[in-house]
Input
Amino acid sequence: MEAYLQGPSGRIVLGPGVLTIGRAFDNLLIVNHSTASSHHAEIRPGFYGYSLTDCGSTNGTFVNEQQLAPYLPLLLQDGDRIRIGDMTFSYGVGSPNFQNPTVQRHKDAPTAKVRAIELNAFSQSEQFGYQPPNPYSSSPPQQSFSPSYSPAMNQANVPPWASNSATVYGLSEQQPVPPSFTPAFDQSNTPVWATSRANGNGMPVQTQPYAPPPLPPPPASPKSNTWLKVLLICLSIVLILGAAGGGITAYILTRPQPVMTVTSDYHVGTTPAGSTGTVLHFSAQSFSGSSTITVLLDSLPVASNQHVSSDANGNVKADLVITTGWAVGNHTLIARDASGYATKVGKSVVIVPQGQAHTPGPDGAPPDDMSFILNAHVQPQDAGTGKQLTSYTEELIITGKPDPSGGTVCTTNDDGQSHFYTGDAGNGITYNETAVMTCSGTYKGGKLTYTETVTSEKEVYTDGVTCQEHTPYVYEHLEGTFTGQDMVSGTLSDDSVTSDCSKGGETHQFNFNAEKGSWTAQF
Output
């Protein structure tokens, strides 16, 4: 259901934006009367309807002839009569039978620099508010395989940074060597070959005058045992290697085999991601019990002051806070306990600049790919004289884009199309204005820029004066930085403007100083 104001100039349909009312040209509803203040009142939408607030006006704001207390909102009811100065408006609720008119604001009159905001702002469904990411809710750790056969080993302690070469296969532990098997052989002595000198018939042997003593025959050589010795040596080697190999196999099967998982609230594709200030959710099983756990990023300890340790069963669960010491890029995480047992398979993670992968920007600013609206309050001053000018408000529309481009920044009028406005120059003179505006701007990493450029502008007054501005010129340039989750502030600047005005055959040129100033916004 729509709400509207019925006034002397017809109906004004109220939208989701704030309707500012007053004598100054930067208001959305201008009450051109001496009893109206420059910024007299405002009508603001709320959950239960629209409320009217007196902005500290000099002569007061009246509803059904009852004066409102300054800065105290009053919820409007269907049929309420609102009086500001000498103008009375009737508030109603219903569906109007006409198009929503455009209400404009102007900085000065006549002027070559016309600021305008349409009431037909974006619907609530198009406004995306920013909320910080939900806190991490831990999920049950993944089950990992661990050998069912785990005999206790007499494992020597190894310092955390010692090389694994001395403990991988347990070769630093002495293995029992079975005694050498040496069977006893019944080896007979070799018989002595003797020679008996006798005659075959028992006859005496004739003595020879001289004969050298006979040489005994050579003893028979015993059989060689070399092959047996070789066989025994080979058998001993086989037994020793068999015993050592069995010990190594048992050690490999029963030593801790840690496994780990890493998850995150943010991702690049399917890979867990994070930026400075966010966390990676780390869990692991099968480490040594009650041991300090060192997490390594590309084989180097992560830059963090966190203490991570396993419980009595060797399980680990921790949130690893990413600091500025974690370099942006693709990395591999592994973990190792104080006994040197480490995860064999690393986990891939991506560290991104703050604001990318939908992570919060610096100081909790919205992510780079988020779409949202800022209600900017601008306080300008004359860049030449330093004189404070009338402040105004406008909506900056930030449209998120995929990484790494960041978002764009514009307003509703920056569409490159002709927009038509009417105004009151005073002394009974009114004018019609035609203007074309474009925009450029970015939002990324908590920083915002916005530039509005006028490409065509012309005014026609009822007294016959016509003015044409020299275009293009920068109508407004804003730069700002988020200082919190919902607060941004920055600076304003724009160009000086030259306008050629003519009436009949007479022409005059007018110059307007550039402006500077500051601005703040919340969402």
Summary: The CA atoms of residues 160 and 338 lie 5 Å apart.
